[in-house]
Amino acid sequence: MIKIIKYVIADILRNKIVIAYTAFLLAIGMSVFNLEDNTTKGLLSLLNIVLIVVPLVCIIFSTIYVYNSAEFIELLVSQPLQRKHIWLSLFSGIALALVLAFFIGIGLPVLLYSFTPTGFILVVVGLLLTVIFVAIALLAAVNTRDKAKGIGIAVLLWLYFSLLFDGLILFILFQFADYPLENLMLVLSALNPVDMGRILILLKMDISALMGYTGAIFQNFFGTTTGMIATILVMMLWMVLPVFFSLRIFKRKDL
Amino acid sequence: MIIATNVTKKFGRLTVLNNVSVNCNKGECIALIGPNGSGKTTLVKSILGMVVPDSGFITFNGLNILHNWEYRRHIGYMPQIGRYPENMTIGHLFTMMKDIRKAEQQGPLDEELLHAFGLPAMMEKRMRTLSGGTTQRVSAALAFLFNPDVLILDEPTAGLDPVASEILKEKIINEKQKGKLIMITSHILSELDDLVTQVIYMQDGNLLFHKSMAHLQKDTGETKLSKAIASVMRNQ
Fold first, then answer.
1. What pLDDT is attached to residue A220?
2. B167 CB-near residues (< 8 Å, 6+ apart)
3. Cβ-Cβ contacts under 8 Å, B96 against chain A
4. What DSSP character marks residue B89?
5. Cα–chain center distance at B117
6. Quick one: which of A43, A176, A243, B108 is 20 to 30 A from B195 by CA?
7. Alpha helices in chain A (DSSP H)
8. Which residues of chain B have pLDDT under 50?
9. Taking the mean position of all CA atoms in its chain, how far away is CA A247?
10. How far apart are CA A74 and CA A93, in angstroms?
């Protein structure tokens, strides 16, 4: 399995997109901290990068990469290798390359300039989101044979997680404003890894007061160690479940 | 060695394999013949586990191939249209394949075809720049490289020039004499004449017959495979 991961990573490095992505993140990470004296402001700027750009790049790149590896997969499947290992290696290879890119691009500047609990959480959330969106991309790509359709689904999923979901939440909030929804919000936010990441970081920045009573509930839950651990666990689920389902489909897929 | 029992496969509404059962043994050289779209490649891919049958099962040396993968180390497969990672050079491809199969490889590699096809001279070429014929040479060299007990060749001579095609044929005859099981699908029946011991004829996903060459010659009164098959097709 390690052999296949090695070939996947070598191939990813050869096509240079991930290197460009690393350079882009590094440029932003460095300039944000050098422009502002206040590192908290810098972190806040990076927050948007982490929550919008990272999922987008990860999901699109991974989907396209899986489609472009069709020949590679076909070749390996006729060899004495387990399909499970082929698929998991592909996942690990892509995830590892992108995690590395994020760590160098955003992780290093944050750790250099703002080595605080908030900075640390930001990097952790970024890394988790990277892996989660690679996993979701794999599920999108394994389900459809048509490349254009697969990439379309990936873009729609990103739109859903980044924009539509928040719209839906707002809609629910306004429609049922007469009822106590705070605990429901807690559960609903678990349905979107981007939201969970955002809440985790915002709470660490101590601006939960801006979110009103719901913010207080969030602070009550996410602020505690149990809440933190629960959040991380739910995000782990967001990695494991897509990979698990995509693996189940891939095992029975005709090539 | 390879036994398929009641294998059925549907792609949507189209039945590609309909209750196909075959029994292939060591030392045989089997020609898989049939019109386009008769399910030959699907049958071959089911044996390799690339296509998962809807019902029925296939065993290799007595083991069900479903959920089993180790049996593939005994198979050398040459696909009809070889598709390889485009950015890899021929050299990289061979290094990778050797690396992947190194663990279970016993005995020396069989690099005869690699050299006969003149591949070492173009190890630096990328797969996407290769012509169809060169890709076929790479596929053939890969299929024979690990000295497998079973060779599955899907349209092996399609796209090869006469010289390369002759080299490959020689190689197949040599391997057959070593007692390997060889399965060939082809449309150029005249090429199969001096190779084949068994004939499987498929049509519309059904296996019409599985006979030994001698048996087929006796039934049709023809000595050449192409004429024998033509006579079978006429009589339907």
1. 78
2. B113, B116, B117
3. 7
4. B
5. 19
6. B108
7. 2-14, 17-35, 39-48, 54-68, 70-77, 83-102, 108-113, 117-143, 147-159, 165-175, 182-189, 193-204, 212-222, 225-251
8. none
9. 19
10. 17
CA distance A75 to chain B (A): 7
Shortest distance, CA A241 to any CA of chain B (angstroms): 21
- State how far the Cα of B203 lies from the Cα of B196, in Å rounded to an integer: 19
A11 to chain B: closest CA residue: B87
**Chain A positions touching chain B (beta carbons under 8 Å):** 3-4, 7, 11, 14-15, 69-72, 74-83, 252-255
With CB atoms and an 8 Å threshold, state whether B87 touches A11.
Answer: yes
Q: Strands, DSSP E only, in chain B?
A: 2-11, 14-24, 29-33, 55-60, 63-64, 75-78, 150-154, 181-185, 198-203, 206-212
The DSSP string of B144-206 is: HHT--SEEEEESTTTT--HHHHHHHHHHHHHHHHTT-EEEEE-S-HHHHTTT-SEEEEEETTE
Per-residue buried b or exposed e for B92-107, using 16+ beta carbons within 10 Å of the residue's own CB: bbbebbeebbeeeeee
Look at residue A99 and tell me whether its pLDDT is greater than 90: yes
Contact criterion met (CB < 8 Å) for A79 and B72: yes
* Spatial CB neighbours of A160, under 8 Å, sequence gap ≥ 6: none
Residue type, A239: M
Q: Where are the domains of chain B?
A: 2-235
Is domain B2-235 annotated with CATH 3.40.50.300?
A: yes
Q: Is the dihedral of CA A225, A230, A231, A233 positive or negative?
A: positive
ipTM confidence: 0.88
User: Using 50, 70 and 90 to split pLDDT, how confident is the model at A214?
Assistant: low
Q: What is the pLDDT of residues B148-189, one digit of tens each?
A: 999 999 998 888 899 999 999 999 999 988 889 999 998 888
Q: Give the domain extent around A51.
A: 2-251
Backbone angles phi, psi at A164, to 5 degrees: -60, -40
Q: Give pLDDT, residue A230.
A: 86
Q: What CA–CA distance (Å, rounded) separates A253 from A232? A: 32
Is residue B177 exposed (0-12), middle (13-18) or buried (19+ Cβ within 10 Å)? Answer: exposed
Q: B235 is written with which tokens?
A: 């009589």
Q: Quick check: pTM over 0.95?
A: no
Residue-wise pLDDT tens digits, A118-174: 889 899 999 999 999 999 999 999 988 899 999 999 999 999 998 899 888 888 888
CB contact under 8 A, A79 and B79: no
Give the gap in angstroms from C-alpha B132 to the nearest C-alpha of chain A.
Answer: 15
Total domain count, chain A: 1
Contact between residue B141 and residue B156 where contact means Cβ atoms under 8 Å apart: no
CA B232 to chain centre: 23
